[in-house]
Amino acid sequence: MGAVCVFASANDALPERLRDAAEATGAGLARLGHTLVYGGSSRGLMGAAARGAVAAGGRVVGVMPRHLVGRERVAADIAEMHLVDTLAERKQLMADLSDLFLVLPGGVGTLDEALEMITWYDVGLSRKQTLFVDVDGFWRDFVAMMAGLRARGVLRPDVDAAWAVVPDVPAALDAVATRLAPRAA
Questions:
Q1: 40 φ, ψ to 5°?
Q2: How many Cβ atoms from other residues are within 10 Å of residue 109's Cβ?
Q3: Are 60 and 78 in contact (CB under 8 A)?
Q4: CA distances from 25 to 4, 42, 156, 163, 169 (A)
Q5: Does residue 57 sit in helix, strand or coil?
C-alpha cells in the first residue's frame, strides 16, 4: 500500500476531540494498510496519530530534526525514526517517503509543511495532493484566506488541484482510500 504523511500540532494542550481525531486518523490509516509518516513527536496531535496507528497494527515512520529531540520527545514505539539536521531536510524526507499529505489542526509549523507541499505541486516539483482535515471547522479561516488570494489573482488557477479540504476524519480516510487505491496491473 502507500504512505501518508500527517502534518499536525505537537501541542499537548489541545482539546481532547482534536486528539481523538488524530488518533482515529492514525488508526484508520493503519486499517487501510498505509504507512503513517509524520514528524516523529510523541506529543500533541502528532503523538496521538502515531499511537493510533501503532495500536491498530500500522507501520509508523518518524522524521525529526535533531534540535527538536528534547523539546518534542521522540516517539519510542514506532517502526522507524529518521533524525535529520534541519526542518528543510525533515520536509524533504517526509515528502520523499509519502504519497499523499493529510493536514490535521496545527500552528505555524503545520502550515509551513502544508504550504510547502502545495507550493511544490504548484511549481511542478511534486504531484502529491495535500488534504486539510477540517476537524471542528479548524481550517475555515485558511480556506477563506486561499479564496481571497484566488479572488485577488495571486494564485494560479491550477493550484486548486494541489489541495482540498475534507470535513472530518471519515471523509479524509475515504479520500485516502480513493486516491491511493491499488492500481490494476
A1: 85, 0
A2: 19
A3: yes
A4: 10, 15, 31, 18, 6
A5: coil
If you write DSSP's letter for every residue of 17-51 in order, what string do you get? HHHHHHHHHHHHHHHTTPEEEE--BSSHHHHHHHH
pTM of the model: 0.94
Q: Mean of the pLDDT values across residues 94-115?
A: 97
Percent with pLDDT over 70 in the chain? 97
Phi, psi (rounded to 5 degrees) for 85: -90, -30
Residue 103 bridge partners (DSSP):
7, 132
Distance (Å, whole) CA 147 – CA 100: 23
Confidence band for 92, pLDDT divided at 50, 70 and 90: very high
Beta carbons of 9 and 45 less than 8 angstroms apart: yes
Spatial separation of the C-alpha atoms in residues 130 and 128, rounded to whole Å: 7
3-178 sits in which CATH class? alpha beta
